Amino acid sequence: MNIQKRFLPSLFLWVLPVLFCLSACRNNPAAGKPKRMAVVVSTLNNPWFVFLAEKAAAKAKELGYETKIFDSQNNTALETDHFENALASGYQAILFNPTDAEGSVVNVQKAKDAGVPVFCMDREVNSTDAATSQILSDSYAGCVALGKYFVEKMNKQGTYVELLGLVGDNNTWNRSKGFHSVVDYYSGLKMVAQQSADFDRNKGMEVLESILQAHPDINAVFCGNDAMAMGAYQALVAAGKADKVKIFGFDGAPEVIESIRDGKIVATAMQFPEVMANTAATSADEYLKGKRDFPKKLPVAVELVNKEDINDYSAYGKKE
Fold first, then answer.
1. What pLDDT was estimated at residue 32?
2. Given a cut of 70, is residue 92 above it in pLDDT?
3. What CA–CA distance (Å, rounded) separates 121 from 238?
């Protein structure tokens, strides 16, 4: 009897915390699960997006999360598979670079309905409430500055070609609209061709090669990103016109920074992917810790980079 009296209180003290833990785990399904964030990007065939994805994953890991990078290969169907995989695998947040502004909405909404926050990086979706927050480069303003510099370097006259990015990406049109909001006021500047090259270097080269057959005497090429700018440069080298045609890009990619220094590319607009990636990962962490007040759209400034200030910049950002 004395043994039972001594044993029962100690048994009670041992069982109570176990029962408490079981109750807490039932009330909090995430309890006991690893902390995980998925990074879903439109493509890893472009160094800019590789940098964005790796920085997002690195920041998430720094914050204590397991991460995995998913490559959508610019395919909305594959992107859908990635979302379904991430949700089924228990990822608690998605850091997302959309493939298509319209086509990606359904994936973001699916995550929201499952209680998983989505933070868009660089590219947006056409929904005001599906994503928890969208951290985006101010592409329009960046191309207003680029357009002004284009007018200056062209002396307000000449013929030019515009290479557009993916037609389903709002960045493509924001950049084009920002550029034309300035350039179209100058009657001496004439656009002789405007064609999509999907933000892709090889396509940029192929598209410009084709355009040069019809318009061999152009004076400039405005490109919606740096990959297409380098492809355009290759096409001009092959045609023996690299020293006669001015090329303008957008991104701040390593090769273009060096090409501006070498006089091959005239200018680019510097984005800051590390800022967007870090902001997305940090915001997702804050959400999972209870914060709910996030801006639906958070613009990140873009800066003009040319030969005059090239020494202030390195790939994808300013020198420290």
1. 59
2. yes
3. 36
